[in-house]
Amino acid sequence: MREHYGARFDTRHQCWQYTPATEADLGGPYCMKLRAVEPVLVGGKRMLHVLAVSEMDWTGEGSVSAGRAEPGLMGAFLLDLSASPWRYVAQSPALPFGSFGACGCEQARLVKIGEERHAWTFTTGGVWQGIVVSWHHIVAPLDGKFQDVSGIPEITEEAQDARYEWQPIATHGQAWYPLLVTKKMDGGATESKRIQYDPEKATYLLPAGW
Hints:
The protein has one helix at residues 2-5; strands spanning 9-10, 15-18, 30-42, 45-54, 72-80, 87-97, 109-114, 117-128, 131-142, 145-148, 150-151, 153-155, 162-168, 179-185, 190-195, 197-198, 203-205. The chain is mainly β.
């Protein structure tokens, strides 16, 4: 945590005060807290997934009140502990998600989505003028970084009476498992489709118009 977020540790809130050094205006400053450490075995190797999230409510030197347009931050790291010395496989210390300074990833779950791949999964969204819009996020290691590979909504602006759910279909030997996506309508009707990962777009996409 200190390597990525610096030495300004807030002892009261148990988080590291951090301002991203990026071109995008992400707001802040933030305070990053270690949220989860998940060991997994991948191809016989001891791997470690680490999740950090920005604290929404904290006070301290330089703290500001986050506005709606200011996202929260997610830090995701994958370490190979079998290497000597250990090494990073993928690392992304400041992924923007959510709004009002909260990433929505506080309760993210680590899910196996490929033969040798796990991803942090969670949903974010909100209500604006009575309209609910929310999205599923699948944040997976890809080319040395973490990336949201989900193009799957939970509730869309256009179809307020439908909700999408998903689960991986464990398939031996597949680098990216297909997903079973189920569309549930008000009234009880359901429809399911098998969605393959699109390597060119690096995303799981729903069929157009579904």
